[in-house]
Design brief:
By secondary structure, the chain is mainly α. The chain is built from 15 helices and no strands. Helix 9 packs antiparallel against helix 14, helix 12 runs antiparallel to helix 13 and helix 13 packs antiparallel against helix 15. It is globular. It starts with 16 loop residues before the first helix and ends with a helix. It is found in: Cell inner membrane; Membrane. This is 4-hydroxybenzoate octaprenyltransferase. Its EC number is 2.5.1.39.
Amino acid sequence: MQTPSHPDLSDISHDDWVNRWLPRAWQPYARLCRLDRPVGTWLTLLPCLAALALAADGWPTLWRLFIFSLGALLMRGVGCTINDIWDRDLDSQVERTRFRPLTSGQLTLKNALYFLLGQLLLCAVLLFAINEYSRWLAVALLPIVAIYPLCKRFTHWPQVVLGIGFNWGMLMAWSDTQNIVPLAAVLFWLGAVCWQVGYDSLYAYADIRDDIKMGMKSTAILFGDKGKQWIGGFYVATWALWVWAGVLLGLHWSYYAVLILIGLHFIWQVSVFNLQRPDRNFQLFRANMAAGVMLIAACLVGTLLV
């Protein structure tokens, strides 16, 4: 039960659009691929759209926007499905994940595997819409997505693997648009990886007690009571890498002006971060969608105003 001193941290709402609008048989699948919680899809897509803007020197084509948006939605769903399959016996022991479809018995493992296969087939169809270089990059992403859920069993840095996989589309944006992945694109991507380590560590603090009890690992456990310093350090690295990428690409000064706003947003996040308020840390995690929107704006003005 939720109380003021102990908020309910479950990441599933039982009175949302999935419950109201989807047939009952579809609901566990929608929740398995997180259609009911689109923040992860947005945090996958927004930096990818920023990279598309840089690679296109302004406005990407509508077709490329559609393909990469659909790809972000599908691959995020694939990642979530694989995650829940690996963690089906652990999620019941974590307050945030105890109602997920596999761990709560709403869905069988067999049906989840069939659903995963269907998602992968849809992703395979998208390969025909991108160039050969990008297809190979897409294939290289699969093992990263597959091993991520296992990482917390043997390393305190699963967030790094998550950041690599979540932001892989930024590299593909360049490979598909220009058939190259220059150093600036790699630096821009590394900045996004550092950004994700920072904001996903905020998310990880909500599970820290359950993870310790189960012997799992995370950056939150590693950082401990020095979370502000570590997360702040990753945000500084993010900002510095994005500045470096902008210099190499010769972007307009307005790019750096918007980066200053992003930097202030990061400072605000770190300043209000509280180890004792996991519910507030969820809100800070979601607030990174605003940073993603600002990043797109920075890339657009930085290229269009040159």
